[in-house]
Every structure is written in structure tokens, then in C-alpha cells.
């Protein structure tokens, strides 16, 4: 795609078993302290990327990192990718602050995230 599209991977969430240790490792790796530091989520902002740590894979049961493509219209993109052969894993939901997320699986079972900020 060309032009002024705002789509791109800007958020990657990682399931972690030990939040405190993971937080130390990612802080050392990224060279910045977490911007969000809660018992249920730790988030870092570094070089235009958001890296999130989700203890135990969170309520969505993540077992591997999930990259989130930032899109201007999540419902339209969800319809487009499912029409192309993806399957909805988690339908669109609001995770706070007007941020909408959804996940789909590609034909090989890889989980892909979609994210729309209001």
C-alpha cells in the first residue's frame, strides 16, 4: 500500500509468566521504564512502538506474542480480512479510552491483532 495509510504494526503484546522479571528484561532491552505499570499489564513506549506484557496471557489466553496493526476503521478491516479467509478469534471490543481491538487467525492459525484508536 502507498499513500498516507496509517496502517502498520505499532503494538506487540507478549504473554509472560513472571511479570516482574519480564518487566526488568524489557526495560533493559528497550532502555526506558514502563509507561504503564499495573499488576495486569505493563506497557512500554519506545521508538514509536508499544510493547505490552500480559501476565499469564491475559483473559484472551495468549500463548505467543501478538502484533497489532493500527487501522483507521476496525470493523471495515475485520470484514475485509475475514472475507479474504481469516477467522475471527476475538470480536471487536473496547479496552478503554476508546481503543478498540480484535484478533483474527490466518489460515495457518497465526493470531493477528487489529487496533483502532478513536
Which descriptors would you attach to this protein?
Signal recognition particle alu RNA binding heterodimer, srp9/1, 2 domains, 19% helix, 2,3-Dihydroxybiphenyl 1,2-Dioxygenase, domain 1, 2 helices, alpha+beta, 118 residues, single chain
Describe this protein's structure.
The structure is a single chain. With 118 residues, the chain is of the alpha+beta class. The protein folds into two domains: 8-57, 2-Layer Sandwich (Signal recognition particle alu RNA binding heterodimer, srp9/1); 71-118, Roll (2,3-Dihydroxybiphenyl 1,2-Dioxygenase, domain 1), CATH 3.10.180. Helix content is 19%, strand content 42%. The protein contains two helices and eight strands; from the N terminus they run E-H-E-E-E-E-H-E-E-E. It has an eight-stranded mixed sheet, covered by helices on one side. The longest helix has 12 residues, at 19-30. The mean pLDDT is 92.
**Major β-sheet strand ordering:** 2-3-4-1-5-8-7-6
Low-confidence stretches: none
Secondary-structure element series: EHEEEEHEEE
- How many beta-strand elements? 8
Query: What is the multimeric organization of the chains shown?
Result: single chain
Total count of helical runs of at least 4 residues: 2
The fold-level CATH name of the largest domain is: Signal recognition particle alu RNA binding heterodimer, srp9/1
| Mean pLDDT over the full residue set | 92
CATH architecture label name of the largest domain: 2-Layer Sandwich
Percent helix, as a range, is 10-25%
- Work out the radius of gyration: 15 Å
**Major β-sheet profile:** 8 strands, mixed
- Shape descriptor: globular
